[in-house]
């Protein structure tokens, strides 16, 4: 038997190391988002990629496109990463994503023109598609139901750490007049990925993944280890294992294929995979269209428009990312206490309000030049408030929610749709934000404020609560024929009552019913309406 270093570690230490590993991987994601804010306005970069002359940007569309192409790469990487993660394991998918990110980062640092930058950032984007698909799912699979959100928030703070590192490297090099000012920040992104690539082979695989590929003994050993060296006869651990066993037998069903998901899960019946795709993509796109990338990538430009000097704008742009770290750490204490839905609703409402205020204050500064300093400071304060609550609420939940709502046997492939939504949201916003600031000025914040308010009814009606529920219990939430939250909860409670509160039994019933339905459909007949005993009809 091969030596596996994790076996000699205490369970609590192993879980800590796994979370630290995940955090280092997410530093890369955050760094790559923040680094373009550090290099976008540097004279050497502007001249090299041809978005302006004499250190001044004249082609805002091309500037936005060079940022956005990274996210378009992620659109493809997320699906490849999800497929590989579910078929060959989380570790192999993360290793491949890290390798692609290293290649892309090195090429960015050595870039000679816009075309080379596009290729490099696309490769990097494919790599982050792998990492963003696998790492959040891995964290969710290792965490327990009662603290899954807080565990995720603690690790995901690393995302903002990466943004902060990028900003402060850029700030430290602000007076450098050579190409080192922009090449070094772009090349530095390979550092966290090199650490990830060098350590991933020594870590244990996801126990939930191992169960789906018939490596049961190893899966139970790892699961017991990360549950605090629990005895395999521990009732709580036995209940968790029973829930997992209930769904393993259906892992190879065609309903879970990526091809079927692209067809909106048309063979998924009571699992309603198409509905889950909509929620995963939707929550990520809503998050990005709240306006966060206007702050992450173009914060210094916003502060200059508010009347601050270039030096002070750069300083504030770095400080605001530290506020983001504080917000994500704050989520550790709130996300599992208040739940996903209340936190999302609160976040969207507060963010919408402060963006409207920030835009209005910026306009007042234009109308009253004598008081522009005071109005500008107040406008910036609103942006700081926005960043804190965004990090504490919407950011955390948008990334964890798509990892919670999928059946185990396809969690990585399912989460790929969430990453796709993230990539589309990031790509479209970074593409249009420079033009929006140029054409709309302060009204840009009003537009994003309106998107925040528009997200509230979507969350209220369509996003069921996942707080405190095991990943297997969450699977039962989607058995209702109705997409509305109220009906989701009603059907969920009916299923549990009928199964005597036994989640494993309920899972088996659903899977057996789906298999019967498939056999009936294959033979040309089909189950009659209501025959499932769950909701109304078979899809």
Describe this entry's structure for a reader.
One of its GO terms (cellular component) is membrane. This is Major facilitator superfamily (MFS) profile domain-containing protein. One of its GO terms (molecular function) is carbohydrate:proton symporter activity. There is one protein chain. This protein is mainly α. It folds into two domains: 409 residues, Growth Hormone, Chain: A; 37 residues, no CATH class. Helix content is 75%, strand content 1%. The chain is built from 22 helices and two strands. The chain has a two-stranded antiparallel ribbon with strand order 1-2. Strand 1 and strand 2 form a beta hairpin. Helix 3 packs antiparallel against helix 4 and helix 5 packs across helix 18. The longest helix is centred in the C-terminal third of the chain and has 33 residues. The radius of gyration is 24 Å and the shape is globular. The chain starts with 10 loop residues before the first helix and ends in a 17-residue tail after the last helix. The C terminus is likely disordered.
Broad CATH class of the largest domain? Mainly Alpha
Basic shape: globular
Question: What name is given to the CATH topology of the largest domain?
Answer: Growth Hormone, Chain: A
CATH architecture of the largest domain: Up-down Bundle
Q: State the distance separating the first and last CA atoms.
A: 46 Å
Classify the beta-strand content into a percent band.
under 5%
Number of helices: 22
In total, the number of domains comes to 2
Share in helix: over 70%
Q: Give me the secondary-structure category.
A: mainly alpha
pLDDT averaged over residues: 83
Q: Write down the Rg.
A: 24 Å
């Amino acid at each position: 038997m091969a030596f596996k270093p994790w076996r000699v570690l205490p369970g609590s230490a192993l879980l800590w190391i796994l979370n630290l590993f995940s955090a280092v991987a997410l530093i890369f994601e955050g760094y790559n988002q923040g680094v373009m804010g550090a290099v976008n306005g540097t004279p050497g970069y502007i001249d090299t990629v041809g978005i302006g002359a004499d250190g001044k940007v004249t082609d805002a569309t091309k500037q936005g496109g060079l940022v956005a192409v990274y996210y378009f790469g992620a659109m493809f990487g997320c699906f490849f990463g999800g497929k590989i993660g579910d078929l060959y394991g989380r570790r192999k998918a993360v290793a491949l994503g890290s390798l692609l990110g290293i290649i892309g980062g090195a090429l960015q640092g050595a870039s000679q023109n816009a075309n080379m930058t596009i290729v490099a950032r696309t490769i990097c984007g494919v790599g982050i598609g792998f990492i963003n698909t696998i790492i959040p799912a891995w964290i969710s699979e290792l965490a327990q139901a009662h603290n899954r959100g807080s565990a995720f928030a603690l690790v995901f703070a690393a995302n903002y750490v990466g943004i902060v590192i990028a900003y402060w490297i850029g700030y430290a090099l602000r007076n450098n007049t050579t190409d080192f000012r922009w090449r070094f920040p772009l090349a530095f992104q390979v550092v966290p990925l090199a650490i990830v690539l060098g350590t991933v082979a020594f870590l244990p695989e996801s126990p939930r993944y191992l169960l789906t590929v018939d490596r049961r003994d190893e899966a139970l050993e790892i699961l017991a280890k990360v549950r605090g060296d629990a005895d395999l006869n521990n009732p709580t651990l036995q209940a968790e294992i029973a829930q997992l066993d209930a769904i393993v037998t259906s892992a190879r069903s065609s309903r879970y294929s990526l091809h079927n998901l692209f067809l909106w899960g048309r063979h998924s019946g009571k699992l309603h995979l198409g509905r889950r795709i909509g929620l995963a993509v939707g929550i990520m796109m809503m998050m990005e269209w709240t306006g966060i990338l206007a702050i992450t990538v173009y914060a210094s430009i916003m502060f200059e428009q508010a009347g601050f000097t270039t030096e002070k704008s750069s300083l504030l742009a770095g400080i605001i990312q530290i506020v983001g770290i504080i917000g994500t750490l704050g989520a550790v204490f709130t996300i599992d206490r208040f739940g996903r839905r209340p936190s999302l609703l609160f976040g969207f409402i507060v963010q919408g309000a402060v963006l409207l205020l920030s835009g209005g204050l910026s306009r007042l500064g234009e109308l009253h030049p004598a008081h522009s300093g005071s109005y500008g400071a107040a406008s910036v304060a609103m942006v700081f408030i926005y960043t804190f609550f965004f990090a504490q609420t919407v950011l955390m939940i948008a990334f964890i929610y798509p990892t919670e709502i999928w059946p185990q046997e396809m969690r990585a492939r399912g989460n790929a749709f969430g990453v796709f939504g993230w990539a589309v949201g990031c790509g479209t916003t970074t593409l249009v934000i420079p033009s929006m600031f140029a054409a709309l000025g302060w009204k840009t914040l009003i537009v994003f404020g309106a998107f925040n308010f528009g997200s509230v009814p979507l969350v209220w009606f369509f996003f069921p609560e996942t707080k405190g529920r095991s990943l297997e219990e969450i699977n039962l939430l989607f058995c209702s024929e109705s997409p509305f939250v109220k009906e989701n909860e009603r059907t969920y409670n009916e299923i549990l009552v009928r199964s005597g509160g036994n989640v494993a039994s309920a899972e088996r019933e659903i899977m057996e019913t789906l298999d019967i339905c498939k056999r009936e459909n294959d033979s040309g007949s089909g189950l009659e309406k209501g025959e499932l005993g769950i909701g109304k009809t078979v899809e």
